[in-house]
Structure prediction request, 220 residues.
Amino acid sequence: MRVESRYNGPPGSGNGGWSAGTFATATGLPGPVEVTLRRPPPLDTPLSVVDGEVHDPAGRVVAEVRPTDDVDAVVPPVDRADAVRVSAAYPGFVDHPFPDCYVCGPRRADGLRIFPGRLPDGRTAAPFRAPAEVTTATVWAALDCPGGWAVIAPGRPYVLGRIAALVDALPEPGDECVVTGVTIGVEGRKARVGTSLYGPTGALLATARATWIALPGSAT
Prediction:
């Protein structure tokens, strides 16, 4: 198992959502699972899964994968036209801590190009066109960054620490979807968020809850 270099998040490491989805799939655990990232997922590195732990070649624990209860952090849907409108004001166009991120990086022409904007009620929303190849990891990735952008602010970058996802269905390639995100709570450097993915008919395809961690030294 590897996280290919094109699926990066911060420089030199895998996008948290994509990596977590890859790890969750590799364990084969039934039902919703929670993935805790213990270190930045390395790129293009052979990884192994042992008893729910993802190890790098040196034997260090990269992530832990555990069963979890139902993921009940559903974020209400948003009309696609509204998602397109707020996405035009995506803060990451002006100030992005990781502009080459596979999911939300504006410099990635070959990425998912999910650009969450802020709604008046504080939720985030973004249109998402499913790529030509859709896997479970694609959905986990799509559920990742829209939650982070509910708390990311100038001088206050966050990275994913933990995510639990429930995927009911995969979008079809080319489907015009919408992703929504919301802040559930913030305590110190930890922010709890929720995200949901809706298909072109408005059906709920997947939902996630996650914990994001503010990087040390960032503004308070």
Helices lie at 16-27, 80-87, 136-142, 145-148. Residues 95 and 154 are 7 Å apart (CA to CA).
